[in-house]
């Protein structure tokens, strides 16, 4: 494993920067490409500070084919972890072309360049959002798909493209077939225990944990709890929150798995990365208050359009085939979120 070079697209972002730490600590060489549309290069400086190791950073857009080809010409890349993409559901409804161009076309360019360079091991950031309304808890990978917004559909389209790519190699009996892991993330939260890297959303956060932590630090006045009339024990929505460090460790396991027996004949397989444990919005608020000693000012508000009552994973396949399971619980997730937020009230801004 040591000395293998991994290309990390979107490596300056929230999950990508945590992945870079784990990759460097596991002995990989890391090349990051990122256009910094939703991140800052400071995150990578912090990755180097945490690990005491250096990585290569190329400031480029993955849709710039010539620039990406040059990266493959310059470095001995053996696998790609593909985080680069846009991820805001509401924005995707307002700017669908931008989302499809970035997430779908960007992946087409990446896979074309990989294929030409004969680098055919890929780990893709998919999402639980690809599951359809017919899927039921806990979600397994074989449940029906059916995303309900442009962001989710961009993930589902990329999954289809990658399955087709792998199937073509099977039909053509390729001697170096594509090996692809589609990792379907549930709700990543938390931060590295150093407090040096974490989630740094632009503007007012859409997601629960960044919102709660900005209320706790006094940047936002009040949390709106979106609905308390769901068919759940306390009436608020239930999600499968997963510590970002556990999540990225799943990617390291996937690199090993792609190179091993499970993918010996090539293939494209989906894996849920979740804990299997659901928590409600009020569970999160209570945990945050308990762990941080801060009071979270909140009110009950109407349901948010497009929200499900409950969503949590069955992560058994990831345990069986990737040899991966989570190590951190809710208190770690909340404490690390707060450590990052309180050390960096303005994120990566000085
Ligand atoms: P992020 O926005 O923090 O990171 C994405 C990174 O990709 C950013 O650094 C951004 O600048 C970069 N990027 C975007 N478009 C690019 C392009 N065309 N060329 C080069 N770089 C580009 O988001 P994140 O939370 O770290 O998410 C990483 C991936 O995981 C995304 O694909 C996202 O859709 C997926 N995902 C995230 C979550 C979540 O809750 N955070 C859940 C499921 C899936
Ligand atoms: C959202 C996205 C999903 C994406 C995921 C991770 C929607 C409809 N879904 O999922 O596609 O993959 O983020 O980026 O946007 N909540 C509040 N108040 C808030 C914020 C959230 O009560 O201010 C509640 C929500 O109603 C939900 C829970 O907290 O029950 C989690 O919300 P969020 O963090 O936005 O994640 P998801 O809705 O699961």
Task: Provide a concise account of the structure shown.
With 350 residues, the chain is an alpha/beta fold.
Commentary on this structure:
The chain has 350 residues and is α/β, with parallel strands linked by helices. It has a domain at 5-192 and 241-275 and 313-326: NAD(P)-binding Rossmann-like Domain (Rossmann fold, 3-Layer(aba) Sandwich). The protein is built from 11 helices and 14 strands. The strands form 4 sheets. A 7-stranded parallel beta sheet has the order 3-2-1-4-5-6-11, sandwiched between helices. Strands 12-9-14 form a 3-stranded mixed beta sheet. A two-stranded parallel ribbon has the order 7-10. Helix 1 (14-25) crosses helix 8 and helix 7 packs across helix 11. The longest helix is centred in the N-terminal third of the chain and has 22 residues, at 96-117. It is globular, with a radius of gyration of 20 Å. The relative contact order is 0.14. The protein binds nicotinamide-adenine-dinucleotide and uridine-diphosphate-N-acetylglucosamine (UD1).
**Helix and strand succession?**
EHEHEHEHHEHEEHEEEHEEHEEHH
Task: Tell me the major beta sheet.
Answer: 7 strands, parallel
Determine the structural class based on helices, strands and strand pairing: alpha/beta
Distance between the amino and carboxyl termini: 37 Å
Unreliable stretches (pLDDT < 50, length at least 5) are: none
Specify the helix fraction band. Answer: 25-40%
Q: State the name of the first-level CATH class of the domain at 5-192 and 241-275 and 313-326.
A: Alpha Beta
| CATH level 3 topology of the domain at 5-192 and 241-275 and 313-326 | Rossmann fold
Per DSSP, the total helix count is: 11
Q: CATH homologous superfamily of the domain at 5-192 and 241-275 and 313-326?
A: NAD(P)-binding Rossmann-like Domain
Bound chemical compounds: nicotinamide-adenine-dinucleotide, uridine-diphosphate-N-acetylglucosamine
Q: Kindly estimate the percentage of residues that lie in beta strands according to DSSP.
A: 15-25%
As laid out across the biggest beta sheet, the strand order is 3-2-1-4-5-6-11
Shape: globular
């Amino acid at each position: 494993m040591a000395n293998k070079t991994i290309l990390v697209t979107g490596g300056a972002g929230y999950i990508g920067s945590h992945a870079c730490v784990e990759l460097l600590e596991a002995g990989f060489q890391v090349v990051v490409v990122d256009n910094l549309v939703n991140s800052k290069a400071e995150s990578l400086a912090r990755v180097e500070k945490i690990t005491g190791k250096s990585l290569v950073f190329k400031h480029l857009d993955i849709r710039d084919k010539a620039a990406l080809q040059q990266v493959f010409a310059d470095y001995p890349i053996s696998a790609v972890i593909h985080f680069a993409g846009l991820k805001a559901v509401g924005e995707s409804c307002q700017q669908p072309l931008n989302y499809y161009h970035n997430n779908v076309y960007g992946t087409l360019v990446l896979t074309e360049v990989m294929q030409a360079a004969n680098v055919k091991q890929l780990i893709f950031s998919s999402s639980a959002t690809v599951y359809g309304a017919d899927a039921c808890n806990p979600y397994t990978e074989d449940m029906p798909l059916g995303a309900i917004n442009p962001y989710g559909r961009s993930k589902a389209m990329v999954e289809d493209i990658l399955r087709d790519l792998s199937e073509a190699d099977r039909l053509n009996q390729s001697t170096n077939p594509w090996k692809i892991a589609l990792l379907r993330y549930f709700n990543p939260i938390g931060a590295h225990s150093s407090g040096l890297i974490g989630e740094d959303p632009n503007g007012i956060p859409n997601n629960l944990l960044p919102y709660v932590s900005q209320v706790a630090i006094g940047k936002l006045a009040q949390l709106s709890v979106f609905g308390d009339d769901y068919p759940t024990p306390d009436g608020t929505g239930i999600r499968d929150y997963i510590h970002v460090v556990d999540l990225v460790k799943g990617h390291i396991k996937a690199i090993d798995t792609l190179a091993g027996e499970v993918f010996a004949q090539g293939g494209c397989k989906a894996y849920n990365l979740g804990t299997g444990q659901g928590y409600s919005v009020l569970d999160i608020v209570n945990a945050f208050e308990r762990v941080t000693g801060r009071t979270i000012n909140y009110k009950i508000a109407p349901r948010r359009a497009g929200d499900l009552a409950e969503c949590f994973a069955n992560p058994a396949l990831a345990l069986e085939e990737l040899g991966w399971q989570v190590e951190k619980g809710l208190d770690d997730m909340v404490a690390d979120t707060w450590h990052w937020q309180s050390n960096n009230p303005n994120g990566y801004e000085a």
